[in-house]
Amino acid sequence: MPGLLEGKNIVVMGVANQRSIAWGIAKSLHNQGATLIFTNRQERSHKKLLKLLDENDMEAALTVSLDVASDESITAAFQEIKEKVGVIHGLVHAVAFANREELQGEYADTSREGFLLAQEISAFSLVAVTKAAKELMTEGGSIVTQTYLGSEKVVRNYNVMGVAKASLEASVRYLAEDVGKYGIRVNAISAGPIRTLSAKGVSGFNDINATIGEKAPLRRNVDQDQVGDATMFFLSDLSRGITGEVLHVDSGYHIIG
Ligand code: NDP
Ligand code: KAL
């Protein structure tokens, strides 16, 4: 049976290592026959990515450096993708950042600078890359970002990132309306807690992780592969009637009061 993503060129942002949600997504997309383009911020992550591709017998059509904090970097990256690949059909945004010291204690203590940084890297970045990507999505397309329940409910320590994710989810809706007329869809996956490099060292992760195992309807945590498959669905034509949506991949935890 041919893959669901055969003939589709998809850009994946945010592989830092083998634990990254973006890597789980990349494997699901590859399994469905997608042609993959990767972007990294840090050279260390780029090296890890090349090693992962090699170990998994996967090939990238292109790997490019992209720091979402810089308009020039975004423009240059998509220019290179346009020149070397041409049309794209999908974009995976799996990028977020907040200062570690603001991911604990009281949200009321968030600094102006820290608030703006979290918004810039974790929410505005989706706006900026959507604008760049839509120029290359001349055959229609699908854009998928990653969010977390802390946008809807107060989750201890998530603080400034919860507010950034609320902004990200609202951006999904506004962007979906903008680009729908070009045949481009924009959706988000709201994943349950997964032990990744970002989650490392932030307070409270272990407690939240344990709670899901006890309280979620499925009584188990989700993993990168489950998020990968749900993201793959959004990138495939199976989800052609869905846009502006936030889909929870969290063992059902968000329905529990
Ligand atoms: P990772 O640490 O594996 O990935 C985070 C990525 O963000 C890194 O690849 C990093 O790039 C990238 N990044 C940070 N700043 C920039 C920047 N300025 N420009 C470009 N890229 C940048 O963590 P996850 O896989 O956990 O995170 C992926 C997404 O999933 C995030 O949006 C996160 O909020 C979301 N999420 C995570 C959950 C979890 O439990 N882990 C739950 C729900 C949502 P580099 O490596 O090059 O620094
Ligand atoms: C309530 C939860 C517990 C953890 C609290 C906050 C987690 C915030 C996520 C945010 C993306 C983490 C950071 O920005 C970490 C950063 O300050 C330091 N790390 C780095 O610089 C590494 C090296 C790079 C690769 O990381 C990034 N991001 O660039 C939330 C849990 C239960 C769920 C999670 C982890 C959600 C989420 O959004 O990731």
From TrEMBL:
GO MF assignments: oxidoreductase activity
Pathway connected to this protein: Lipid metabolism
InterPro entries per the UniProt record, alphabetical: Enoyl-ACP_Rdtase_NADH, NAD(P)-bd_dom_sf, SDR_fam
Known catalytic reactions: a 2,3-saturated acyl-[ACP] + NAD(+) = a (2E)-enoyl-[ACP] + NADH + H(+)
EC number in record: 1.3.1.9
Uppermost EC category: oxidoreductase
Family (UniProt): Belongs to the short-chain dehydrogenases/reductases (SDR) family. FabI subfamily.
Protein name per Swiss-Prot or TrEMBL: Enoyl-[acyl-carrier-protein] reductase [NADH]
Keyword field: Fatty acid biosynthesis, Fatty acid metabolism, Lipid biosynthesis, Lipid metabolism, NAD, Oxidoreductase
Matching Pfam families: adh_short_C2
Species annotation: Tigheibacillus jepli
